[in-house]
Amino acid sequence: MNTSTDSTGAHSGGVPDRRGTNRFPVREDVRYRVIQARNAKISGCGATLNIGSGGILFTTEERLPVGRTVELNINWPARLDGVCPLQLVAIGRVVRSEAERAAVRIERYEFKTRSVNQFVAGVGA
Question: Domain span at residue 39?
Fold first, then answer.
């Protein structure tokens, strides 16, 4: 787990941060899938930039449509009982999107166990 501070921040141009929760600079692999894609299936891989109880900022392969519901599958840095790898599965809405990153407001989430070989470097399910 890489928890180095993100010098670019989650916002730019001196705009005040309006989030009500703290974000933590967690860097982990993420797979995303737009659930409400109208004409095409939109999915890809990236990495989280920061995570908080209310939302997630992550890199994307393309601009995601604002307002759409997405599912995020994130390798979680902690292990269950120090042994079993976990995956965070979060559902939320895209609230901000740029060419290579997006912010999602979390609506619901759950932790699932994953096999050791599952979703390593964007491979697996």
Answer: 23-113
